[in-house]
Queue: 4 jobs
Job 1
Amino acid sequence: MSKKTYFFLILILGSLTALGPFSIDMYLPGFPAIAKDLHTTAAKVSLSLSGFFIGISFGQLLYGPLLDRFGRKKPLFIGLCVYILAAIGCALANSIESLIVLRVIQAIGSCAATVASVAMVRDLFPVSENAKVFSLLLLVVGVSPMIAPTVGGYVTAAFGWHTVFWILAAMGIAILVATIFWLPDSYKPDKTLSLKPKPIIQNFLTVIQNPQFYTYSITGAVAFSGLFAYVSGSPLVFMEVFHTDEKVYGWIFAFLSVGFIGSSQLNTLFLRKFTSEQVVNIALIAQVFISITFLAAALNGLLTLPVTIVFLFFFLCCVGYTYPNAAALSLAPFSKNAGSASALMGAFQMGAGTLISVAISLFEVPSVVPMVGSMVISSSLALTILLVGRRFITEKVEVQEGADAGLAH
């Protein structure tokens, strides 16, 4: 594979992976404006975010079997078309109820891109490169929290929140065109795979019964849900607790994303000396320590805006190390069922994120504690799952050079 081909593959796969996060981040600064325009509260507007997470959670389970049965591109095209139409619907929404429903539909469309991109990493690259490729994808994904809230803040202030969704629709169209003309077919459709409920469930059960998969996919999902706690809680924390405006919030969000992006890229350097398993262990322990210290500071009234930003920065650094390595370890045992494995991994991740975002939306009193408390719970639970789950792994597929030997592609 030439460097040019490699670059364009990473760019397109990264854009597919970033579509969902961009759809989340870009409208966050518009929460107060949406609440005012639709005659509701910011807490209820956050339910549209929870609805997006719910749509992704269930949608990924839908697309997993479709990607294995029909190949990667056809289900991807359908999903992107659904996304585009739903984004247009969101731009035209005139009630909070319709916005919530349309966000669920938009999420179902976007998760086709998420599942396909993860499965295609397993299709197109050897196992030994998967963790590095996921880190590179996070670099593209990382542009989302750097650009999306900042752009969203300025767009909302200048043109209103409806324009944000018109921009998202245009992005969906651009990505659809790129996948049609420049994304290769990476997987031959498996016509023997039945789409009847029983075989699909059996296929998912085959995947989930693999100890390495369930240990690292659930660990990664629960640890990553701390990021969702931050995303869901940050509009309330920064704009209502610390009284920043939409533009300042966008810049803070962009700055904090540097921690997430930077650590995911430094991960490739760490993998030269450490295994993915070792990096996950260290990152999770650090994540637990930081979140507990963060909560202690919040409960004792020690948090100022700068201190809060510092804690969040280092917390997100830990997530940037945990996710790509946990994802690579989860998918390493699979080749034939990579689509279903990717879908399950994504469903676990979004399911955990949904629970946290819904829980945070129930707290309408401005406070940092719900967000930080959720981070403590997610980090501690993830570490516990890892310590218990890895005891059941008897035949581990390593993510390192030579790991793909003997695996069918």
Job 2
Amino acid sequence: MDKKKRSVLILILGLLCAIGPFSIDMYLPGFPAIAANLHTSVDYVAYSLSSFFIGICIGQLLCGPLLDRFGRKKPLITGLVLYIVASIGCSLSKSVEVLIAFRFLQALGGCVGMVAPNAIIRDVFPVEENAKIFSLLILILGVSPILAPTAGSYIIAAFGWPVVFIVLAVVTVLILLAVIFWLPESKMADPSFSLRPKPILTGFANVLKEPQFYTYAFAGATASAGLFAYLAGSPFVFMELYGVSEKQYGLIFSVIAVGLIGSSQLNNVILKKYNSAQIIRVVLITQSTIGLLLVAGTAMGLVNVYSSIFLMFLFLSCQGFTFPNSAALAMSPFSKGAGSASALMGALQMGCGAVASALVGLFFNGTALPMAAVMAGCSLIGLAILLIGRKTIEYKARPEDVKAECLELMEKY
């Protein structure tokens, strides 16, 4: 693949990955306006975020096998069309219940843009390059948390919150055209791949039997759920608790997102000296420590808006290291069935995210403590899974090591 085609491919994959974050981040500044317009509360509007996460979780499990059966492009095109229709439905919602339902459908369509890039990367690029490609995607992906809430806050202030979903639909139409005309098919349809429930479930079960997959996929998913807790809780914390405006919230969100982008690119530099397994271990220890500091400071009333921004900046900067390395390590054992493995990994991420965001609402007490506690808890659980899982990986590898040593001794003597 020449340099130009490689750049175009990475750009399109990055835009596909950005659909999910834009769908999440762009309407966050509008929570108070949506609540007022639909005659409900901000914490109830947050359930539209949870329904989106649940939709992505379920949708990824469905579209993963479809990507393996029909190739990559046809499911992508179908999903993007559904996303566009559901986005228009969101803009026309007259009650929060209808908005929650359309957000679920929007997620079902948009989730294919999160699964397909992982599978295409595994199809096209060598395994040893995967972590670097994921880091490049995060560079493109990182634009969304900077632009989305800021653009969303200005759109909401000028035109109202429904226009946010119209903008999402228009942008996705452009991405759909890029997929149709410029995205090459990386895997042809496989008629032998069964879509019956039993073989699909068996395929998922086989993926879950791989220690390297479940260790890094679960560790990455639970650690990443801290980001979703932040997404669910930050509108209330900053706009209601600290009293910042919609535009100021967009700016704060953008500043914190810079940490995510910068760390993802720093990851490429560090990968020249250390491997992904070494990096993710140090990062999860660091993130857990920052999470505990955030909880302690919040509980004792020692943090204000500025210190909260600083600690959240550090906490979320860790995600720039966690995602590319955990994804690369989880996907590396799979050359066949990469679509199913990618779907399962994405479903785990969104499922953990849905739980984390729901917990923030469930334990809502009018303070920032529920958000801080869930964020810290996610990173601590991720670290525990990593440390325990690595022992399992080492144990599984040990018989092969012993066999290799025996063969070496036999050849020597």
Job 3
Amino acid sequence: MKAIIAKSYGGPEVLEYTDRPDPKVGPDSFLIRVKAAGVNPVDWKIVAGYLDPMMDGHFPLTPGWDVAGVVEAVGADATEYAVGDEVIGYVRKDEVQHGTYAELVAAPVRTLARKPASLSWQQAAGLPLAGLTAYQSLKRVGVQAGETVLVHAAAGGVGSLATQIAVAQGARVIGTASERNHDFLRSLGAEPVTYGDGLADRVRALAPEGVDAAVDFVGGGVVEVSQELLKDRSRVASIADGEVKNKGGHMVWVRPDTADLTALGALADAGKLSVPVEAILPLSEAAEAFRRSMAGRARGKIVLEVS
């Protein structure tokens, strides 16, 4: 099979498009013929070595955790899907080596769910990691219908999904974003506010009694701002503030979860969740996909298409 590999830690320049052996398929895993692989910031951070203190990496290393594709073979005790089934997955394993930037990937059953019928392959590939991050962050702070939730970086890849999920759950969403993204947030059902100095006052102007929950997808001190506004200071979750637990909130590190991924697919098929795709590149151009992700300006997902 063709795959992207890195033979050492480094930047986009270490990525190679080359031939690799087909993956071995464990007893509770499925071999997936990849149609598209989502690109996430964690992918280039892994290749840069940033996650080495917490996860073992083995070279040559194929990056990628998001996938959409078709079941090509099943493991000895894998019964949940059949050959030909269309699936999506957040294929994070305990160690980093055999990722989704490849024509084939072996995916444990715990990482997979059925592909939403309403999404294209490219949209479906962009859903798992970002969607699960958003969904699990909202779940961690217990967002309920009728509550007001503050979403930081609400126009970003994770934030835009969190905004849609919270709206679908019946919550009122106040979302932070630059002014150029305010109309986009309104189209998702949120009330936009500009981030930066004076944020707490701008939120209070919309919600004088404060907010019920907050989710942070950007870092930079917004946990403290959120706690000024929260009725219960513990109801804040962050993926970006390493000190959030010491501040009384919740750290979220997204987990593979079939039930959560299935719930996201149901929202998509009900017309309540869309996955904006900004760029589709061939697998061979993974280095360019890394560069675009590292620039940090993409509003929609960057996706690698596998022929």
Job 4
Amino acid sequence: MKVIITGSTGMVGKGVLMECLKHPKVEQVLVINRSSLNMEHPKLKEILCNDFLNISSIKNDLKNYDACFHCMGVSSVGKNEEEYAKFTYSITKELADSIFSVNPNCVFNYVSGTGTDSTEKGKVMWARVKGKTENMVLNKGFKDAYMFRLGGIIPAKGIKSKTGWINILLILFKPLYPLMKKMKSITTSEQIGVAMINSVLFPSELKVLENPEVNLLAGKREL
């Protein structure tokens, strides 16, 4: 399996990357970032892209991949709907369009969030934009697509969030991690990564995955 990952400098994307690099079914990983990971691995290839709204300029580098795990995202705090939609919907559409043009048989996974509004008509701005983005991906025509509506996440292996206040919360809650890991509503960066890989290996009829479904998918194993 050959996969593309965006957002691998963030908490979710880094967790997905770590699982892909160690998984025996993943033979190559292409990460697309604005800034370099400064990491070397036999499976790893990196492309730097300063303008994700012009990712079509590198679409020839996206050929022959089996999956794209789109983990890149921004907080809606301090942004109006136009600004947030640019970083959420427009960038995702540019990525999906570019990959679909060269890889229609790809599995495309989008990291969304719990509470996303599929109707696109609710009062919460970020939820409407995420819902519009999900609908666009699901209707694009990919071989398969999954929406990862993540909620509470416990990072593993020293992975940190790029958002300062989230890191503060993670430090405060760290003593509770053993208890939290037993909760179905909580997932981990490791489980998200394995679930992403398993979405390709074990296709599911359920396309919108909340944390409990992510954990179930992560638990699937070959017989």
